[in-house]
């Protein structure tokens, strides 16, 4: 079997210091990451920043929404509108409690903010004016500012920063923003985001709705298309994780099969039926496994995890992570001989497929819309196989690992060069 060549981390090059070679104001030495509080989105930003060599020179800002109570029904609103409406609701409930107290009535608690009593002020908030001022005032000393954002709630923030400080920043938006792409310097998005423009996608959209389904136009020159999600996994990360988790994973019987269970999404719906299917298949392949490690995500429904724990929790070959720190995810990626992943999580599948090890997907037949396009592309590349329960898990197979993050970083370098800017060496 040919050895698997894993993605390498960025390497530094020797030569003339950039401040002399390219001019004082053309070298990017720092970055701002704008996240939405969801690990799947922020991990993509940090992964790109890491691949660009700025992992030790970035600051994380977050666009936060009010959570709890009625707020869970208001996430379809723009963030600014949601916050204003939440403020009005709080004022109304505050006035109601004041009247109730005057009447001697017992107040009723209405949880509206993050963490109940923890307000939005406890979170580092992404402020357009603050970031723009910082980019302008530090430009002469520190050079341009790289801004990397991901997630629907970050779109207005990132585009506003580019509009107000276009001479001082380079703005990268990860995932298709569903707005005019010229509001950003570069957009990095998976190919399946353009599924509505494919013949298969067009067939599923009624004619009168096609003009309203985004994206409406094919990608232009400043769109970078990836196969999956960006992440922080490369050969250096895997070597480090292999060393850190050696004591726990090295003694385990081989082959070690890692099972990652996500949770249902709008494009991949399932419940206890998939849990029963997964446990049945795992019991079928158990004879060819040395060890099985199972992890649930924050999105895994309790009814799914309960079925899996009930059926497999007492098996001596199976260990189920209890959710307590430290999280063994990186250790799993480094030490696993094969992966079984539920079809809903593009991030988990993308990370597993960056290792070059066998990846089996369960539940892809339940996926719809652009998720079907994602899974189809992976199968056609020979990167994943469906998990049927008839596999011999000791059989190994490989493929060229997905290298989306490094390839996207290379395109960022090219786009910066066209503008006359460079990243620090």
From TrEMBL:
Which InterPro entries does the annotation name? Answer: Elm1-like
Give the GO terms filed under biological process for this record.
mitochondrial fission
What are the GO cellular component annotations?
A: mitochondrial outer membrane
Q: Which PANTHER family match?
A: MITOCHONDRIAL FISSION PROTEIN ELM1, OS02G0535700 PROTEIN
Q: What name is this protein filed under?
A: Mitochondrial fission protein ELM1
